[in-house]
Specification:
Blueprint (H helix, E strand, L loop, with lengths): L3 H29 L1 H7 L3 H20 L4 H12 L3 H11 L5 H28 L15
Helix pairs in contact: 3-4, 3-6, 4-6, 5-6
Length: 141
């Protein structure tokens, strides 16, 4: 029961199960709190969430070095937060407050900000510069 084959077999199933569970939690949690989410609009907490995400992306860009590929990974990795852990901590330690709601809204904002940013950064890194040849093909002389 503790063999690597058993772990490999269950890994795919557990990956899918955890992803589906997280999506269900987000949909149900946000769906049941629509009125509370609407009340967050215009609050300073929402602005703080956006500033945290954008600031994290900028810090990753500044500290990512000169290579555009590494810099984009650093910026997205710096901004990415462990939403699953944040949900667990907020549900266990801050029951009866709006903390879980802020975490759920933060998770959605994280996706809404980072996915377009990643797409734009990926397109910029993949596009070869004019006059340059890819590193994998040697030049003919």
């Amino acid at each position: 029961s503790h063999s690597p084959d058993s772990a490999g077999h269950w890994q795919r199933f557990m990956d899918k199960t955890s992803s589906i569970s997280l999506i269900v939690l987000l949909v149900v949690g946000l769906g049941l709190n629509v009125s509370n989410i609407i009340s967050l609009i215009g609050s300073w907490g929402l602005l703080a969430l956006v500033l945290l995400i954008v600031g994290s992306v900028l810090i990753g860009l500044l500290l990512g070095g000169r290579d555009p590929a590494i810099r984009s990974v650093m910026s997205l990795g710096t901004a990415q937060r462990n939403i699953s852990a944040a949900i667990l901590v907020s549900a266990q330690n801050f029951a009866g407050t709006t903390t879980l709601l802020y975490v759920l809204v933060g998770g959605v904002l994280l996706l809404l900000i980072l996915l377009p940013t990643a797409k734009r950064m990926g397109a910029r890194v993949e596009a070869p510069h004019a006059g340059e040849q890819p590193a994998s093909k040697p030049q003919d002389t």
